[in-house]
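User: Here's a chain of 209 residues. Predict its fold as tokens.
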Amino acid sequence: MRGPVDIVERSSTFTDALRRRCVRDGFGAGAVWECDLIDAPLPRRAYDLIFARWVLLFLPDVEGHLRKLVAALKPGGRIAVEDYCRGTLRMVPEPPEWNDFLQADLAFFASQGGDGNIGSRLPALYEKVGLDVVDVTPTTKVARPRSQEWDWMSTYFLDVLARYGRIRPFTGAKAASLRRHWLTAARRKTSLLISPTVLDVVGRKKARS
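Assistant: Prediction complete.
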């Protein structure tokens, strides 16, 4: 069986692209709600599957959002979330500023009302909102200089260093020092970057008795 996909996305850039893709996918036209997830008028007991990737780490009241999603699932339906457990992020050799940098990374998400390690909390939250946890799968990348994974992490983190430098205990001076270390590490074939872990957490709504 196949059918149209409903979408919640508050960015018009992404919703426009998703609408074009839906025209081509052959599944039919679904609803597109251009709003925050908590405000989306999701129908009750309507969906076989709900999927969210890199969404919950930005949200306050994750339990409340999950309850909304569970209400929209059919009995026996599944929710699949991909989100971060960021504690595995490391660089080898490790810069002296690294732990302060990691604290700033988590503090950034907290300042938005979110949790950069939300993936590790999801199994317990699933059970709390009435889901059976059916699978938890981790993905962690180990990257060497000039690899796609190294370039991906470097592009993102070097771009946010200046912003993180305003979040204590990280500072602007530490951000500048870490940037120099990072660029030097990129020229050494023995350097490593270990990515934040992405957890795929799948839950099933309890079927009617």
